[in-house]
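Exercise 7b. C-alpha cells:
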C-alpha cells in the first residue's frame, strides 16, 4: 500500500474523521485501508496543516497529493519472451496467431515457451484500440423489422424419426421488440419466404422495412452501395409492400436487436437444456413461449413488455396484409437443352423447340412452374412435378417432324387403327403382339401410310395383305404404291400362315404373274 495513493474523495473523508478525533484503527476499518496507511496520511495532513481551518476541496487535495505524495508505479516484471521481441513482431506482421508463434519459437530456439507469456507480450505490443462509439438509433412504430437465421442444434424429423440439423428463423419488430420465431430444417429460399409469410400472419400486418442479414436466401451479393437482392425475395417484398434494407457487410452491430434479443435469446432461453424433440412439438411450444415468456419479459432497453408495447402502439401502425398470401416461389435461370427441356430440382419441363439454347427464367411456385423470357414474357405454365425424374411435356413444344414418333405408344396405335378400320386394327394388333422383337415402330410406320394414301386405301391394303397371309410394312407399302388395293381379292390356292417378316408372296394373284411372264400388261 506504500506505493499506492488514496483517491482524493477518500482523503477528504479521512481528514473529516481525523478532525473528529477518530483513532487510526477505526478509520482503517471504515475506509478499508491499512493502519500504517492511515498513519502515513495523518502525518501528511499534520505537515500540511490540514487538520484545522476550512476543509480543502477535492481538486485542491488532488493537486497537493500530486506534488507532495507522487505515486510510484509498481515494479514491472520482465517478460520471459522479451528477448524474442523482434521475432514476435515479425511473426505478427505476417499474420501468425499466438499459438503458431509459440510453436515456432520453441522449434527455432529449442527451449520451452509459455503460451500465456507470448499472449501477454503480444498484448503489450498491440495495445487494444479504443472502443468505437455508436449512436443508438430508435425507430418509429411499424417502420422496421430485423430478420435472421441461427443454428438451433438437432431436432427429430417426424417423417423419418431421425435427428436433423435445425435452424431458428426470427423476425423481430425493432420498436416493440416483439418477435416471431420458427424452427426449420433448412435455409432454402422457399423456407425463408414461407417464414416471412408466417411472421406477417402472426403479427397481423407488415412492417415498412425489413433488414435481413446477407444470407443467400435474401441477398445474392452483399455491398455497401448496391447489394443484389434475390429475385424471389424481391417479388415477396412487392407482394407484401415492404422495403428490403440489407445489413451492410461486416457490420454485425447494425443487427444487434435480432441477433442478441432474437436469435441468441431464443437459443439461451427457449432451447437451452432441452433434449431433442420432434420439430412440430417444439414449434408448438415455441409459440407459447413467444407469448408468455418472450412477450411478457421486461425488456432491458425499452423497460417495457414487448407484447404490451406491440399491442398498444405498434400493431396499428403495421401495413395491411394483402388479400391473398404470397405463393412462395423460387426464381432460377435455366437453359433450354436440345431435347426441348429445362431442368429444375431433378425434374424436367418442356419449352418450345424454337428456344433451344436460350436462357429462360423459371419461377417455381407451390403448384406450378412458369417459364419466362429474359424480357419477362410468359412462355408456358406447367404443373409442378411431384417426384425426381418426372417429365412435364406439352406436344406443341416438340418439333412437328419429331412429334409422331415421340407420341407413339401401344394405346395410341390401337386407337388410330380402330379409327381406320377392322383390317387395320387386326394387322396393327398382330404387330404389337409380335415376339420377341418389339414392332411398335413398325406399327407406327404402317399407320403413317394413312396420311400419304388416305385411311380407306390403307384399310384395303391391310385387308389384302392379311388375305394373302402378309402383315409386314414393306408388303403393305408396295400394295399401296402399285395400286393393288384397288383390285378385287380372290381366295389363294394354298393359304399359308401369316407372316410379319419381309416376304412379298401373294401380293399379286397367280394369274397376274402369268400375264407378266407371257408379256401381257396390266
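Sequence design result:
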Amino acid at each position: 500500500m506504500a506505493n499506492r495513493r488514496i483517491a482524493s474523495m477518500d482523503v477528504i473523508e479521512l481528514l473529516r474523521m481525523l478532525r473528529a478525533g477518530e483513532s487510526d484503527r477505526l478509520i482503517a476499518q471504515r475506509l478499508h485501508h491499512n493502519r500504517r496507511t492511515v498513519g502515513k496520511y495523518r502525518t501528511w495532513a499534520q505537515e500540511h496543516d490540514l487538520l484545522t481551518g476550512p476543509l480543502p476541496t477535492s481538486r485542491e487535495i488532488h493537486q497537493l497529493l500530486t506534488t507532495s505524495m507522487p505515486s510510484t508505479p509498481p515494479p514491472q516484471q520482465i517478460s520471459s519472451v522479451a528477448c524474442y521481441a523482434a521475432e514476435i513482431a515479425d511473426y505478427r506482421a505476417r499474420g501468425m496467431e499466438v499459438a503458431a508463434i509459440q510453436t515456432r519459437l520453441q522449434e527455432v530456439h529449442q527451449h520451452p515457451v509459455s503460451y500465456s507469456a507470448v499472449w501477454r507480450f503480444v498484448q503489450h505490443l498491440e495495445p487494444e484500440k479504443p472502443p468505437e462509439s455508436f449512436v443508438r438509433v430508435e425507430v418509429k412504430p411499424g417502420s422496421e423489422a430485423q430478420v435472421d437465421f441461427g443454428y438451433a442444434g438437432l431436432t427429430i424429423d417426424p417423417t423419418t424419426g431421425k435427428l436433423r440439423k435445425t435452424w431458428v428463423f426470427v423476425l423481430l419488430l425493432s420498436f416493440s421488440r416483439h418477435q416471431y420465431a420458427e424452427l426449420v430444417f433448412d435455409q432454402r429460399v422457399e423456407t425463408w419466404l414461407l417464414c416471412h409469410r408466417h411472421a406477417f400472419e402472426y403479427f397481423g400486418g407488415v412492417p415498412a422495412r425489413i433488414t435481413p442479414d446477407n444470407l443467400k436466401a435474401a441477398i445474392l451479393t452483399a455491398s455497401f452501395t448496391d447489394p443484389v437482392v434475390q429475385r424471389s425475395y424481391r417479388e415477396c417484398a412487392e407482394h407484401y409492400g415492404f422495403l428490403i434494407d440489407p445489413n451492410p457487410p461486416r457490420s454485425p452491430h447494425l443487427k444487434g436487436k435480432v441477433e442478441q434479443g432474437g436469435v441468441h435469446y431464443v437459443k439461451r432461453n427457449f432451447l437451452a437444456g432441452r433434449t431433442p424433440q420432434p420439430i412440430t412439438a417444439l414449434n408448438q411450444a415455441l409459440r407459447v413461449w413467444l407469448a408468455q415468456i418472450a412477450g411478457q419479459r421486461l425488456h432491458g432497453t425499452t423497460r417495457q413488455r414487448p407484447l404490451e408495447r406491440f399491442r398498444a402502439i405498434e400493431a396499428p401502425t403495421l401495413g395491411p396484409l394483402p388479400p391473398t398470401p404470397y405463393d412462395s416461389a423460387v426464381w432460377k435461370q435455366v437453359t433450354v437443352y436440345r431435347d426441348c427441356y429445362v431442368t429444375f430440382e431433378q425434374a424436367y419441363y418442356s419449352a418450345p423447340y424454337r428456344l433451344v439454347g436460350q436462357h429462360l427464367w423459371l419461377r417455381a411456385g407451390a403448384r406450378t412452374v412458369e417459364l419466362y423470357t429474359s424480357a419477362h414474357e410468359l412462355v408456358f405454365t406447367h404443373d409442378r412435378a411431384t417426384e425426381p425424374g418426372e417429365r412435364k411435356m406439352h406436344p406443341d413444344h416438340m418439333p412437328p417432324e419429331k412429334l409422331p414418333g415421340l407420341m407413339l405408344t401401344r394405346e395410341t396405335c390401337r386407337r388410330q387403327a380402330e379409327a381406320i378400320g377392322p383390317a387395320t386394327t387386326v394387322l396393327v394388333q398382330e404387330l404389337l403382339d409380335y415376339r420377341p422383337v418389339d414392332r411398335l415402330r413398325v406399327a407406327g410406320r404402317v399407320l403413317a401410310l394413312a396420311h400419304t394414301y388416305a385411311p380407306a386405301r390403307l384399310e384395303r391394303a391391310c385387308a389384302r395383305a392379311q388375305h394373302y397371309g402378309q402383315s409386314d410394312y414393306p408388303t403393305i407399302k408396295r400394295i399401296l404404291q402399285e395400286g393393288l388395293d384397288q383390285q378385287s381379292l380372290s381366295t389363294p390356292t394354298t393359304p399359308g400362315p401369316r407372316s410379319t417378316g419381309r416376304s412379298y408372296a401373294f401380293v399379286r394373284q397367280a394369274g397376274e404373274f402369268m400375264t407378266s411372264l407371257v408379256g401381257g400388261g396390266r
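Instructor comment: The longest helix spans residues 256-271. Confidence is low (pLDDT under 50) at residues 220-228, 493-507, 513-522.
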